[in-house]
């Protein structure tokens, strides 16, 4: 689960503050030392941690906090506000072109999940009643074009390809022309990655950028690589002036260093996060909701959105009526279980519930086989 280690350490630090009626400067200093260690252990960039702690400390020893009836809560509120600022304040939307199609260029190192992420974004756009086109401009990695075509078939989105003998620049240009021809709203270009950053890769990406003038240059980075992800983001940004970042594998990143550092280091927002293996596992990155999750405050808005996506409202009202009139059957129970399963792992859902101490859940794991057995 994302930020698990950081979240439990921060909650532990604040628990000590809550036991005190009035806070002294020493109390705040001790708490900030623990917060600093927690952030460094989470692989957050050192300079980012230093600036964050200085800002929070400065605000926390002010009169406003010291004279507050609940000073500990006030300190937590300040930490929450500064975490939100650190990650970019508000969600960052895609840069939409005034004249369709909107051109999105995907860049990143090999193995970050770039090709899969193009499919996830295409499915996300399709769910929002947009017409995307995928363009296979990775002519180096074996089976890269085939992978994109398979993804396109799975989500019923067209894939434009000219094979692996044409230059990526020409493929990108032809892809944009094709998008105009078929009336696509968005064209997503999957470019080649490398195992490491090299001059040849950057030159090719610069040439593609110059040829198609994209509305968004999205860098895909693996959240689990922590500081390495931040370094990659810095180098790509210096060469290409990226417009946003997509973090993959955020669900498996128990530390969270990349998510907390990238915005501060590059000045570029995280726009989306991959939170699972399924093509539907893509979330808009909300700094305020992420900060709430880190501090164990839950995330009710994301929970509501998940429920709206997975649960049939009309069916839910019918179930409610049946429960109230004692007409609820085992078939109805089965239907409810199936809709709940669509929302994802129960452990992750519980962590979004405000007021629920996720630390007390421990290593709660619901055996999916038990649910399957109940369904049978």
UniProtKB/TrEMBL annotation:
<dbReference type="InterPro" id="IPR022941">
    <property type="entry name" value="SRP54"/>
</dbReference>
<dbReference type="Pfam" id="PF02881">
    <property type="entry name" value="SRP54_N"/>
</dbReference>
<keyword id="KW-0342">GTP-binding</keyword>
<keyword id="KW-0687">Ribonucleoprotein</keyword>
<dbReference type="InterPro" id="IPR042101">
    <property type="entry name" value="SRP54_N_sf"/>
</dbReference>
<keyword id="KW-0733">Signal recognition particle</keyword>
<comment type="similarity">
    <text>Belongs to the GTP-binding SRP family. SRP54 subfamily.</text>
</comment>
<feature type="coiled-coil region">
    <location>
        <begin position="300"/>
        <end position="327"/>
    </location>
</feature>
<keyword id="KW-0694">RNA-binding</keyword>
<keyword id="KW-0175">Coiled coil</keyword>
<keyword id="KW-0547">Nucleotide-binding</keyword>
<dbReference type="GO" id="GO:0003924">
    <property type="term" value="F:GTPase activity"/>
</dbReference>
<dbReference type="InterPro" id="IPR036891">
    <property type="entry name" value="Signal_recog_part_SRP54_M_sf"/>
</dbReference>
<feature type="domain" description="SRP54-type proteins GTP-binding">
    <location>
        <begin position="269"/>
        <end position="282"/>
    </location>
</feature>
<dbReference type="InterPro" id="IPR004780">
    <property type="entry name" value="SRP"/>
</dbReference>
<dbReference type="Pfam" id="PF02978">
    <property type="entry name" value="SRP_SPB"/>
</dbReference>
<dbReference type="InterPro" id="IPR027417">
    <property type="entry name" value="P-loop_NTPase"/>
</dbReference>
<dbReference type="GO" id="GO:0005525">
    <property type="term" value="F:GTP binding"/>
</dbReference>
<dbReference type="GO" id="GO:0006614">
    <property type="term" value="P:SRP-dependent cotranslational protein targeting to membrane"/>
</dbReference>
<keyword id="KW-0378">Hydrolase</keyword>
<dbReference type="InterPro" id="IPR000897">
    <property type="entry name" value="SRP54_GTPase_dom"/>
</dbReference>
<dbReference type="GO" id="GO:0048500">
    <property type="term" value="C:signal recognition particle"/>
</dbReference>
<dbReference type="InterPro" id="IPR003593">
    <property type="entry name" value="AAA+_ATPase"/>
</dbReference>
<dbReference type="InterPro" id="IPR004125">
    <property type="entry name" value="Signal_recog_particle_SRP54_M"/>
</dbReference>
<dbReference type="Pfam" id="PF00448">
    <property type="entry name" value="SRP54"/>
</dbReference>
<protein>
    <recommendedName>
        <fullName>signal-recognition-particle GTPase</fullName>
        <ecNumber>3.6.5.4</ecNumber>
    </recommendedName>
</protein>
<dbReference type="GO" id="GO:0008312">
    <property type="term" value="F:7S RNA binding"/>
</dbReference>
<dbReference type="InterPro" id="IPR013822">
    <property type="entry name" value="Signal_recog_particl_SRP54_hlx"/>
</dbReference>
């Amino acid at each position: 689960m994302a930020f698990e280690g950081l979240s439990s350490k921060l909650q532990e630090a604040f628990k000590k503050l809550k036991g005190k009626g009035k806070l002294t400067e020493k109390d705040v200093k001790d708490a900030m030392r623990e917060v600093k260690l927690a952030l460094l252990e989470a692989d957050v960039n050192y300079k980012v941690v230093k600036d964050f702690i200085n800002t929070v400390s400065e605000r926390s020893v002010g009169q406003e906090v010291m004279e507050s009836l609940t000073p500990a809560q006030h300190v937590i509120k300040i930490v929450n506000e500064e975490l939100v600022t650190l990650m970019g304040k508000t969600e960052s939307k895609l840069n939409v072109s005034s004249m369709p199609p909107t051109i999105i260029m995907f860049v990143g190192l090999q193995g970050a999940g770039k090709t899969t992420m193009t499919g996830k974004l295409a499915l996300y756009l399709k769910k929002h009643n947009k017409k995307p086109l995928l363009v296979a401009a990775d002519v180096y990695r074996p089976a890269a074009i085939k992978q994109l075509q398979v993804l396109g078939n799975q989500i019923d989105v067209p894939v434009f390809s000219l094979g692996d003998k044409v230059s990526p620049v020409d493929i990108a240009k032809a892809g944009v022309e094709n998008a105009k021809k078929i009336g696509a709203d968005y064209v997503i270009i999957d470019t080649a990655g490398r195992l490491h950053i090299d001059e040849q890769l950057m030159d090719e990406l610069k040439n593609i950028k110059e040829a198609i003038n994209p509305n968004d240059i999205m860098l895909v980075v693996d959240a689990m690589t922590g500081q390495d992800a931040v370094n990659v983001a810095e180098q790509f940004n210096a060469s290409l002036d990226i417009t946003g970042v997509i973090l993959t594998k955020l669900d498996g990143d128990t530390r969270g260093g990349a998510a907390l550092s990238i915005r501060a280091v590059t000045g570029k927002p995280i726009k989306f996060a991959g939170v699972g293996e399924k093509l539907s596992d893509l979330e808009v990155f909300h700094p305020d909701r992420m900060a709430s999750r880190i501090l164990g405050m839950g995330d009710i808005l994301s929970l509501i959105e998940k429920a709206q996506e997975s649960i049939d409202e009309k069916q839910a009202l019918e179930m409610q009526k049946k429960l109230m009139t004692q007409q609820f059957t085992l078939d109805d129970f089965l239907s409810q279980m199936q809709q709940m399963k669509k929302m994802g792992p129960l452990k992750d859902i519980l962590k979004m519930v405000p007021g629920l101490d996720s630390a007390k859940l421990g290593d709660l794991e619901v055996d999916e086989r038990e649910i399957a057995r109940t369904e049978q």
